[in-house]
Amino acid sequence: MRQPDIEIYLKDGDQQAVTDWLNATIGPCTPWRRQGQTFKCQAANGAPVTWLPNAVGKWHSLFIESERTPWEDDPAFARAAFAALGVEIRCAPGGWQEEDGIDAADRWIKINGEGEQEFIWRTQ
Q1: Longest C-alpha distance within the chain, in Å?
Q2: What is the pLDDT of residues 69-88, one digit of tens each?
Q3: By the 8 A CB rule, do 3 and 87 touch?
Q4: What is the DSSP string of 49-72?
């Protein structure tokens, strides 16, 4: 099932490299607008995109608020980002709801040069 929005975390990700990748993948995005600590733009398909530097330590968040992307879910988005950018990517294994509980919220997938694996990441 396609997620209504997708989010990944990039370790030491470069905003310009991410911008170039998004432009090539989902079409030209508008220039980034700084809003406090976040940056926002809009993809060619109208999807709002948010870049939050250092959202969790050195990890930057990339969030697309739309189901109109080439990626069905967070893991597919993460795999594509790793292939294009070559930096470690983390994402949730699927959509999360509060009723899933806090333990499920700590389940993550990481993708790096060693492959893909699920692990526990306590972000708080």
Answers
A1: 38
A2: 999 999 999 999 999 999 99
A3: no
A4: EEEEEEEETTEEEEEE--S-SS-S
CA separation, residue 106 to residues 65, 67, 94, 97 (Å): 22, 24, 12, 12
Q: pLDDT class for 18, splitting at 50, 70, 90?
A: very high
Inter-CA distances, 42 with 37, 56, 100, 102, 107, Å = 17, 23, 31, 32, 29
What count of other Cβ atoms lies within 10 Å of the Cβ of residue 32?
16
Structural contact between residues 101 and 95, judged by C-beta atoms closer than 8 angstroms: no
What would the two tokens of residue 6 be?
Answer: 């997708």
**Model's pTM, two decimal places?**
0.89
Ranges of each domain in the chain: 6-120
User: Pick from 114, 111, 113, 108: which is nearest to 94 by CA?
Assistant: 108
